[in-house]
Amino acid sequence: MSTLGASATESREVRARSEETARLAVEQASYAYSPTRRQIPTFTLSATSFQARQREVVAILGPNASGKSTLLQLIAGSLAPLSGRVLLDGIEIGSLDARTRAQRIAVVQQHAPLVFPARAGEFVLQGRHPYGRALHLPNEEDVALAQNALAQVGAEHLADRRMDQLSGGEKQRIILARALAQQPLLLLLDEPTLHLDIGAQVELLERLRRLAEENRYTVIVVTHELALAAEFADQVVLLHRGKCLRVGTPAAVYQRELLEQVFEAPLDVEAGPAGRPRVSLRPRLADAARPDGAGRTRG
Amino acid sequence: MRPLTMRRVVWTCTLLAGVLFAVSVMALKLGAVPISVSDLVVSLGRLAIGRTDQLPLDYRLIVFDLRLPRIVLGALVGAALSVAGAGFQALLRNPLADPYVLGVSSGSALGAVLALQFLPQIALATPLGAFVGAILTITGVYFLGRREGHLDSTTLLLAGIISASFLSAIIMFLMTTLTSRDVRGMAFWLMGDLSTPLVPSLRWFFLVALLVGIGAIYTTSPDLNLLVTGEREAMHLGVDVTRVKLVVYVAASGLTALAVSASGAIGYVGLLVPHAMRFLFGSDYRLLIPASALGGAIAVVLADTLARTIIAPTELPVGAMTAIAGAPLFIFLLRRSMR
Fold first, then answer.
1. Distance separating alpha carbons of residues A13 and A139, to the nearest angstrom
2. What SS3 class is residue A106?
């Protein structure tokens, strides 16, 4: 009895500790692309470090060609860092075999059109592939998990529709459902809002927040959408030309001069509700049209 | 949601096997010498109990020495080409891919032409020359199609197409040096023709190699479902992309090499049958591979029966038949699937 009690306390402690400690740790990870092995690298991501706990949403933010997708691929394990380490629950991601990695990390990418049409339900079931044996024919548990994943993205009614007949937003939800069917610890998304209208963007990010909370995921989103990252991320990793400039809460990272320099655009940053910054484009054209500067509402 | 079950795979294959059996019986019956169904049943029954000696000699000759080996060869070649086609379509992520897109048929044709020119007196020289030509082409295209140590779909496709057209040019050059009798033989061979039976000593090798090739592609079928959605996606879902691509490339090319060495380059089967099976049974490779094998067998046996009988006693090359029937059918399927 006493041993049982002790082990229960112990496991509670372990759980408490794992809630506190980082699930994902990127430690001084760098990467360089070269056309061939002997040539000088055409793009370098310099040493980047940050940590993320479970239930946390992290935005990797930066303009085009800042190294966002490279960092995401280092975390996904599809690229091996040139130096430094990427750890998931203390284990180096590169040391995991492809199957184990797919059981722990799910990646949602910008969707390429399918060569051969598939039904949405079948597509979501592909998320069970890392758990399958031999022919990977789905069992009842797989089907139940796929249906649950569809329910979590509010797309049960789409299961029998063909992927090429879905709208951009619907397709995005099905792809997310496939990632959920993988039952990952880490959910990585590469520019998930790229082809969505503003309503679908907000819906997706609210859903991600909820999923992170309910399923205890660590969610990493690569984006160049300043406003959305400020609204939904717990932590922002700001990249610029392959360098990690800042890591911290949106309020700490969003400084006007810094963002203007990185995004090369005139921006206004205000403090919004709940300490989240609000970013808007300063109307430069309007300024130019009125030489007295009367168009400016803020000083 | 209707997930794929083992039951559905087994039922579909049973159905297709039934159709293949029916088509084969019809093919045994039809020909320049018609044979009644009752005679056929009697002789098949005697074959089953191993008493072929009780059959009339001309029956035995026509049914078992001429038609049956031809039907079996047609079925095997059809299965090999269709599975290879389905494999290449996934490997190259291209619905227009067929077994010949990477130049295997041109390579084996060149081998055959060279054999015909330099060793015309040896019967085995043509199929062996074809096989060697195919294997050399497969190896060459493999090394041309690699990028940073991995097979790259686009590079592979370009390397294959270029090799095919280069080899075809050499064939054209050599053809002008052949005698007119050889040119006719060669033309039949280039179209695809089942009238030359497989040398008995190679039958078992052919069958085993074919089953190994089809089996190898079938073991990758769950991975191919993911590979067609994109290489990176497949990798993120735990697929060893490099290994799967290598297995499919070697097995699909090998199957094509075997088929072409035995019967020449029968067109359209490897392109059309996988699409027809997708249209009928869906695009899940776990069902598509066995369905394509059986569907390809049905298609070639049917086409060859037509080729033998349509202007009997003159025979058409089976490849002419598959092309004539295949092109309109392909357009029909294309229009239907776009709706």
1. 35
2. strand
Q: Does A160 touch chain B (CB under 8 A)?
A: yes
Q: Which one, of A115, A113, A135, lies nearest residue A125 by Cα?
A: A135
Cβ within 8 Å, pair A98-B286: no
Cβ-Cβ contacts under 8 Å, A135 against chain B:
6, 221-222, 286
Cβ-based contacts of B240 with chain A (< 8 Å): 98
Q: What is the CATH number of the domain that holds B86?
A: 1.10.3470.10
Nearest to B6 among A76, A100, A137 (CB): A137
Nearest CB to A115: which of B2, B3, B95?
A: B95
Q: Is residue B4 included in any domain, yes or no?
A: no
Is residue B173, in this structure, part of any structural domain at all? yes
pTM for this entry: 0.86
Most confident of A255-269, B24-38, B192-206: A255-269
Q: Which domain holds residue B303?
A: 57-338
CB A60 within 8 A of CB A72: yes
Number of domains chain B contains: 1
Mutation target vs B (from A74, A93, A114, A115; most B CBs, 10 A cutoff): A115
Average pLDDT, chain A: 84
Q: Where are the alpha helices (DSSP H) in chain B?
A: 6-29, 37-48, 57-59, 68-91, 104-118, 125-144, 153-175, 180-191, 203-219, 221-227, 231-236, 241-263, 269-281, 285-309, 318-338
Kind plus residue range of the DSSP H or E element containing A238: strand A235-240
At position B109, the amino acid (one-letter code) is: A
Alpha carbons A141 and A180: distance in angstroms, whole number: 14
Phi-psi category of residue A9: left, alpha or beta, with phi > 0 → left and psi -120 to 50 → alpha: alpha
B9-12's contacts with Cβ under 8 Å and 24+ in sequence apart are: B9/B286, B9/B287, B9/B290, B12/B281, B12/B287, B12/B290, B12/B291
List pLDDT tens digits, range A225-261.
Answer: 888 888 899 999 999 999 999 999 998 888 888 998 8
Examine residue B146 and state whether it is found in any structural domain, yes or no: yes
B118 domain residue, yes or no: yes
CA distance A169 to A185: 24
**Distance, CA of A139 to CA of A257 (rounded, Å):** 55
Out of B6, B93, B237, name the one closest to residue A102 (CB): B237
**Cβ <8 Å between A109 and B283:** no
